[in-house]
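This week, think about what follows.
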Amino acid sequence: MFWLFALPLLIADVQVAGVNTGLKVQVTQKGLEYGGQFVVELLKSVLMKEKIQDINGSYQVPLVGNAQYSVWGLHVSQIQEHNSTVGFAEGTGVSLGIRDAQVLLKGHWRLTTSLGSDSGTADIRIRQLFLSTVLGVDRGSGGRLRVWCAGCHSAIGDLDLTFYGGSSWLYNLFASSFKGSLQSEVNKQLCPELRKGIDDLARVLRTANVSAKMDSFAEMDYSVVNKPVISADQFNMDLKGQFFRVGQPHTSPLVPAPFLLPDQPGSMLLLGISEFFANSAALVYFTSGALRVNYTDKTIPKSIPFRLNTKSLGLFLPELKQQFPDMAMEIHITARKQPLLNFHPGGVDAAVFGAAEAFVVLPSARLASVFLLNIDANLTGQVLLEPVKSGKSIGRVGGSVALKRFRLSQDRSSIGEIKVKFLEKVLYVALQLASSRVNKRLKKGVALPNIYNATLVNPQVAMYQGFMLIATDLHYHPQVAA
């Protein structure tokens, strides 16, 4: 049950009309504004990784004459920005803007004049850089996100050039003569270099995983199924949110129902988890045979006086003790069919359909089946999501569970009729006592693994008819370079 609620947090062609999904993600304007600062840092890192093409040209230098110059090996060494903007580009993606930034370019220079050739290093300091771009976001092939540069504009307001090495003291006297030409050439290359960086990101996304293996039984498909819907103040994305058996992707017989996320602009991120998501997981674990457990006397704590043998169980089933006196037993519990989960404003209801088969361990160690009982139970639960102080975890998920209904029925028996009503009452009391112990563990919760160095801030869980909503802010913890 924990994983049905926790898995979504370990958590992105043409639009296909009417496709319903298991998971919905919404980033609000508040979330974009917070994340925008990291997007701008990404934009800056993209520029700093790209090398600007060589600049070659000629210019008439006073007292020297015609000068053939070449500036090569140029790269962005430093970017300082104090005025950046980020927003949603309706129907397209995200718009980014940097104003009045200072950029330092470093490279090498070579100058050839009538006096000969000279070379050294050079600094180009851009004092007023204006750069704006629109990052397009769409659904790509295979349910992956596709990004591209949907627009770019750059302008350089002022530029300084400083030569080092060689006869740089002489050329620095005439550096202003090169400013206009360099300013134009550098400006021409800023947007193309930015597009290269975005193209690199696009190539990574084209091969990104759209499914994750949860354990040896199940994988989860979180591919994008519809074209993201981008308005002026929010970004909405539909993910498939379906489980399948490991190595056996298939279309689920379950059909997701439509649901809409409510408007909550006060939170950075909204995550909608539908019943389809939870029930597809239940179906996979049922069909893969994972919903089974075997009990022997060794699995029962020694502090419990009741032992799993014919002597103890014979107190309720005298014929068992008569036919098999003082013999060890095993109980095998399996699911007869998949559990069904229902989300509603009051919480989560679960219908469980199981079977308990009792075996006697014969002297030969062979198991002899003595009876088979069907178990039908109805549970109700609540989900809790808490922030954590440590950056090692994104948050802690917990909850509570209560038994609403419990019924036993005899399927078959080799020791005569089983008094199921009596056993039902005994087990109901035992299960009620056990639930208090279970709820103590549930209250402590489970720490969810860290995702992209982020933690949840003020997470809220709300239940709706057919889906669960998680609304939260995020706090990002930048990695500190060693």
In short: The chain has a mean pLDDT of 85. The chain is about 25% helix and 45% strand. The two ends are 39 Å apart (CA to CA). The domain at 29-206 is CATH 3.15.10.10 (Bactericidal permeability-increasing protein; domain 1).
